[in-house]
Automatic annotation (TrEMBL):
The keyword Cytoplasm is annotated on this UniProt entry: no
Protein name from the UniProt record: Probable magnesium transporter
Family assignment from sequence similarity: Belongs to the NIPA (TC 2.A.7) family.
Keyword match RNA-binding: no
Keywords in alphabetical order: Cell membrane, Endosome, Ion transport, Magnesium, Membrane, Transmembrane, Transmembrane helix, Transport
GO biological process: magnesium ion transport
GO terms for cellular component: early endosome; membrane; plasma membrane
GO molecular function: magnesium ion transmembrane transporter activity
Species in which this protein is naturally found: Juglans regia
Signal sequence segment: none
Assembly description: Homodimer.
């Protein structure tokens, strides 16, 4: 794929974003540990003492910088190009966790990170050129099409089930519960960020989109999703190793964000048959990044057992 100027800007911003976000995981983890040692109440069991910890706020600021870069990247490039570049955040967090948090990165973990990067690079190479968007109302019409409304309803139901039923029972023993909530909400936040970023880009170009209520609605969705993600990501980081949380969160979030993007923006209609084949094949490759980690395999088995048990109950 030949990169357009906008795609190149989105690509560079997404790389910078992933570096900041990967580092923020480690800084926030250190802050969570320090807050738990001071107050005796961990974030994983409902404590909020980390809000008084300067180191956690440093990590939060680092993450905000990364998310702002990510936000701007979505205004220039399609989600199927920007989202897979989050692979870099896994490498940054895994390497820093190895040296700073003493969470050892073994050979299989290294293999998983390499597979993740290779899959992401191939997805980026075969990402589509984006259809020009001229107004926020055009995005609104995409967001209110039946297929995407069904996706949003499904995500909302799944999040409520995870929060109300699974989180109290097994959230502290199964990493997929907290990361699942973050990933599901994240897929909606990506679409809203894409809409809001495009609206602001058009506004700065002289086509004011702030006069439309749809712009403010997307802003409300972004705020809701980001706050929810922050709460449950803190719980996941406080309860489980960063080396486990980062890859699982990345794969689930990336897969769901690409799925949401395909449904809402119909990016696959802009791809050649060969590019579609590569995109599907290498998104599967990205998911296989989990396989080298036996902890992740065990968690997949546990969540399947829980879902089956709930169905029988």
């Amino acid at each position: 794929m030949d990169f357009s100027e906008d795609n190149t800007k989105g690509f560079v911003l997404a790389l910078l974003s992933s570096g900041f976000i990967g580092a923020s995981f480690i800084i926030k983890k250190k802050g969570l540990r320090r807050a738990a040692a001071t107050s005796g109440v961990r974030a994983g069991v409902g404590g909020y003492s980390y809000l008084l910890e300067p180191l956690w706020w440093l990590g939060m600021i680092t993450m905000i910088v990364g998310e702002v870069a990510n936000f701007v990247a979505y205004a220039f490039a399609p989600a199927v190009l920007v989202t897979p570049l989050g692979a870099l955040s896994i490498i940054v967090s895994a390497v820093l966790a190895h040296f700073i948090l003493n969470e050892k990165l073994h050979k299989l973990g290294i293999l998983g990170c390499v597979m993740c990067i290779v899959g992401s690079v191939i997805i980026v190479i075969h990402a589509p050129q984006e259809h020009p968007i001229t107004s926020v109302q055009e995005i609104w019409s995409m967001a209110t099409q039946p297929a995407f409304l069904l996706y949003m309803a499904s995500v909302t139901v799944l999040v409520f089930i995870l929060v109300i039923h699974f989180a109290p029972q097994c959230g502290h023993t199964n990493v997929l519960v907290f990361t699942g909530i973050c990933s599901l909400m994240g897929s909606l936040s990506v679409m809203s960020v894409k809409a809001l970023g495009t609206s602001l880009k058009l506004t700065f170009e002289g086509k004011n989109q702030l006069i439309y209520p749809e712009t403010w609605f997307f802003m409300l969705v972004v705020a809701t999703c980001v706050i929810t993600q922050m709460i449950y990501l803190n719980k996941a980081l406080d309860t489980f190793n960063t080396a486990v949380v980062s890859p699982i969160y990345y794969v689930m979030f990336t897969t769901l964000a690409i799925l949401a993007s395909v449904i809402m923006f119909k990016h696959t209609t802009l791809l050649s048959a060969a590019d579609k084949s590569w995109l599907l094949r290498n998104n599967f490759w990205n998911c296989c990044e989990l396989l080298p980690n036996p902890v992740c395999l065990w968690e997949w088995r546990n969540i399947c057992s829980l879902l089956i048990g709930a169905g029988k109950g």
